[in-house]
Design a protein that fits this description.
Length: about 450
């Protein structure tokens, strides 16, 4: 039975208080029937500087790589999905029509045992399709087809209701996801990036990931980015309604190919080794321990976590343990809990040539990319303060940094990133800065969260 709700102030207040690899195709990655040993994630921990210069304190970059296995044919975790769609007046015309088409495509791709809800929002929130098994496809699609534009943008309330619908079938053995689509500012209810970020944290604690899709040039990319990042979801920028089918397709491809979730990484540093920061991702750092949570891992995808640490001076010929790493996760195919353990260390030498020869270039490339992305975030912050020339100079310096590191590491990937920085430095004072900013913020999250598409 289809029901409707308006925004409930008490519900919104309660939630606000609680908050106080390769490119994927649009279908899951499948392969021949695997052996049981193949139905487990891969794990590796290494360091960009396995040999370090003796006699001086220096930085090291610990890299943890998790890889998803190939998903067996017809085997995937059941889905518990809420579509939260903006139907405000600014969505009129092609935008809403393309959004409805993308949503109907999602209905067609789900299986009868999956659950789906559809929540729409403008000045008020309506639960268009309450959470239910995807059996009456025609009725669900008919409800979506009948959507018309109206009103303002109660974005916070829309996500809150989406979370309520997902919670009705919340199950750690399901992929619990919200896809939010909006083309405007949150102008009804809580509206700051921090408030939406805290709502993302509430979702993450419940095991729900939120993917945000911003449409056009008027949405708040910081708000949408915070909501996605703090729930470990994806964020995408759709320049027009024509992009929605592609983006929804890739996002659904991720959802249908989850092989592990509730991934917890604990890094215990050796005495004397000091944590500095996680690059690209948020980490909880307390003393010598850093904890990083990943919501999900997709089939044949690699996700990387880079932790920068300070290593005290060592004696030539000596070795030092840097860290012990423990990873726990839920395997969505075997339905069992899994764990991985590893350790990483360095040795010291007075021979600079030998130290250079022993560098792990792949790990250093990841660290350089993450550092450059942090530099880009700072350039955007300068531009937001009206410091256009300073922002431009920051991007130019970052391009030089990337150029030097690309040459040192023989990295084509960093060369491409360098050229991107040059182009962004030229666009930062143009009239199309709003669009450039959205592209940059999407890129920051894509790189930091290891988005596969």
């Amino acid at each position: 039975m289809l029901t409707s709700n308006v925004v409930r102030a008490s519900t919104i207040a309660a939630v606000a208080c609680l908050a106080c690899g390769p490119v994927f195709a649009e279908t899951p990655v499948v392969g021949p029937p695997p052996r049981p040993a193949e139905l487990d994630i891969s794990f590796d921990v290494n360091v960009g500087e396995p040999m370090m210069i003796a006699g001086q304190e220096q930085s090291a970059y610990i890299n943890i790589t998790l890889g998803g296995f190939a998903l067996p044919v017809t085997t995937r975790a059941p889905i518990n999905l809420a579509l939260v769609l903006d139907r405000s007046a600014s969505m009129a015309g092609d935008r809403l029509e393309k959004a409805k088409a993308a949503a109907q495509m999602v209905v067609d791709r789900l299986q009868p045992d999956d659950t789906l809800s559809v929540v729409t929002f403008d000045s008020r929130v309506e639960v268009l399709v309450p959470a239910q098994k995807v059996s009456a496809r025609g009725a669900i699609k008919e409800q979506i087809l009948g959507l018309t534009p109206r009103g303002s943008t109660a974005l916070f309330a829309g996500v809150t209701f989406g979370l309520e619908e997902v919670s009705k079938f919340l199950d750690p053995k399901r992929v619990n996801r919200i896809i939010l689509l909006s083309d405007g500012q949150a102008n009804v209810g809580p509206a700051s990036p921090n408030e939406l970020g805290r709502l993302g944290e509430v979702a993450a604690r419940q095991g729900v990931t939120i993917t945000t899709i911003g449409l056009g040039s008027d949405y708040n990319e910081d708000l949408m980015a915070q909501l996605a990042m703090r729930s470990d979801g994806n964020h995408a920028y759709a320049q027009s309604g024509a992009d929605l089918g592609r983006i929804f397709g890739f996002e659904l491809g991720d959802i249908l190919s989850v092989v592990a979730q509730d991934v917890q990484i604990e890094i215990e540093l050796a005495p004397g080794v000091v944590p500095v920061r996680a690059l690209g991702r948020e980490a909880a750092i307390a003393g010598r321990k850093a904890t990083i949570a990943l919501s999900q891992l997709y089939a044949q995808q690699k996700k990387n976590v880079v932790l920068e640490v300070k290593v005290p001076a060592g004696v030539a010929g000596a070795k030092r343990n840097l860290a012990d790493v423990n990873v726990s996760y839920a395997n969505m195919v075997s339905k069992k809990k899994g764990a991985k353990r590893g350790a990483v260390g360095v040795e010291f030498s007075a021979d600079k040539t030998l130290v250079t020869a022993r560098q792990n270039r792949a790990a250093l490339e990841l660290a350089v990319e993450a550092i450059a992305t942090d530099n880009n975030r700072q350039a955007v912050a300068l531009r937001d303060q009206g410091k256009v020339r300073e922002a431009q100079q920051a991007l130019e310096r970052n391009a030089v940094y990337l150029q030097q590191e690309a040459a040192r590491l023989s990295s084509e990937k960093l060369k491409v990133y360098e050229r991107q920085n040059v182009e962004e430095s030229r666009s930062i004072d143009k009239r199309d800065w709003n669009e450039t900013r959205k592209s940059m913020r999407e890129d920051h999250l894509k790189r930091g969260m290891s988005r596969g598409w």
